[in-house]
Amino acid sequence: MRILILNGPNLNLLGSREPEVYGSRGFDEYLAELRGAFPGHRIELFQSNVEGELIDALQRAEREQDGVVMNAAGYTHTSVAIRDTIAWMKVPVVEVHISNIHAREEFRERSITGARCAGVITGFGPEGYRLAILYLLGRIPVAGHS
Ligand code: CA2
Q: Is 53 left (phi over 0), alpha (psi -120 to 50) or beta?
């Protein structure tokens, strides 16, 4: 299976600050572990701090990938444009947050993008990316999802 991990603004800074919220490792380390955990599957990473670049990546993913694991970071709470792109896609998108967005500031409670995703995983640290991939691979059967 071809899977895109799409990381939004500032996730390139993981490991450099706020270790109590986001852990102390950079995403490249998690990515190496994920690739090791899912041999035989192609897992690509695209990170951008630019909203339009994330939208372009989603549009490309519709042609080139079988599933997307997306952490839109701060755009989760603001981006109607990313939500509209996900709504247009047939390829499943799973939203992941490292922290529990419901246990932080009130403005993080609302995910604009999540409603158009297959599901939302929040608060399990980087393990959330692995859970999302398991779902995309059909290894977490969910009633009503084919
Ligand atoms: O918990 C998550 O995964 C978030 O998507 C992370 C976003 C935040 O805006 C969302 O509300 C929840 C922020 C990512 C920024 O990460 C940093 C990591 C280290 C240093 C600075 C920023």
A: alpha
